[in-house]
């Protein structure tokens, strides 16, 4: 039986939206019902079994609307499987994991999500917005660094975790727990 999954994203120049679309396509290909939506357009998550949330990462900061989404839905997200990703690095550090901003890290911990997976971004002269992005896009950092194989593999892992929990009795216990147990998909229960 398939799960209903929301893939929500906050994108500045479209690269994160493109990653979200590929994640959604991969989850659909594995039998799940998926909505891919800009996070600003999401009003309610009650109908979803799981949420994948992605944000563009600029100067080590998430887009404001992605962080607000986490804050606004923290109670509901605690009751769902949640995966986070951010995208943005280009250039020499494009393949290095980036730490989550402190406020996002606290919210991820509160909802029981693991740290965000980092995907390389894209910096193209025709889509760069803002002075700094346009300036960088005019130099040697201008490229699409997204690793589509890595993105698809991560989405397949999410699908496998969703399928595994369909066959088990996965749930998030209510209330505070003293011990946290790691779920096979990598996030913590409790």
Automatic annotation (TrEMBL):
- Biological process (GO), any one: heme biosynthetic process
The domain of life for this entry's organism is Bacteria
Domain (Flavodoxin-like): give its ranges.
5-159
GO molecular function per UniProt: FMN binding; menaquinone-dependent protoporphyrinogen oxidase activity
Composition skew (Basic residues), residue ranges: 178-190
Q: Which SUPFAM superfamilies match?
A: Flavoproteins
Q: What is this protein called?
A: Flavodoxin domain-containing protein
């Amino acid at each position: 039986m398939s799960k209903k999954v929301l893939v929500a994203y906050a994108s500045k120049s479209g690269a994160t939206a493109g990653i979200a679309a590929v994640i959604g396509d991969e989850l659909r290909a594995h039998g799940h019902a998926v909505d891919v939506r800009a996070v600003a357009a999401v009003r309610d998550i009650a109908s979803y079994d799981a949420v994948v949330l992605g944000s563009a990462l600029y100067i080590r900061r998430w887009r404001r609307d992605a962080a607000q989404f986490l804050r606004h839905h923290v109670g509901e997200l605690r009751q769902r499987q949640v995966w986070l990703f951010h995208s943005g690095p280009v250039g020499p550090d494009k393949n290095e994991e980036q730490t989550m901003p402190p406020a996002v890290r606290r919210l991820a911990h509160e909802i029981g999500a693991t740290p965000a997976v980092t995907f390389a971004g894209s910096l193209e002269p025709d889509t760069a917005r803002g002075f700094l992005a346009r300036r960088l896009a005019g130099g040697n950092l201008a490229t699409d660094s997204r690793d589509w194989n890595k993105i698809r593999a991560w989405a397949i892992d999410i699908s496998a975790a969703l399928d595994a929990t369909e066959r088990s009795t996965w749930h998030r216990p209510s209330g505070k727990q003293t011990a946290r147990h790691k779920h096979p998909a990598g996030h913590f229960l409790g």
